[in-house]
Specification:
Elements (H helix, E strand, L loop, with lengths): L9 H10 L3 H10 L3 H11 L26 H4 L11 H4 L3 H14 L2 H11 L10 H7 L7
Helix pairs in contact: 1-2, 2-8, 3-7
Amino acid sequence: MAVSARKLEVFEILEKVENAKTKKDKIAVLQKNEIMPLLDVLRGTFDETIQWNLPGGTPPYTPNNEESYPSTLLRQHRNFKYFVKGLRESNRLNPIRRERMFIDILEAIHPKDAELLVSMINKKSPLKGLTKSLVKEAFPQLIQD
């Protein structure tokens, strides 16, 4: 019976991108690890048509333990719909409830993935060498202009 390889967390993929030496290598790492949570974070960070229905800055949250965390961004990315301006799911929520949901996610996932989400809602690249043009080259259909 074959054992399936563990999927990398989004922060692990982006660490590989950061450590890649050339632009071509960075693109290859992104394309090799094309999973929805990664695409959601990249699009949420670089696509200007996506606006977050959350206050800017860093929310008051307590980062989780790196060794043991109850959830992952692989599971939690489905909840992004509650934080995007203009989406029915987001608009129906009371702002305090929406912010609490976001903080709950930050506190449930790996602390490095939580940092990625904070960067995403602030529309800032989470690491050196990860640019909008690099993402557009790796995934041409992902980001709208």
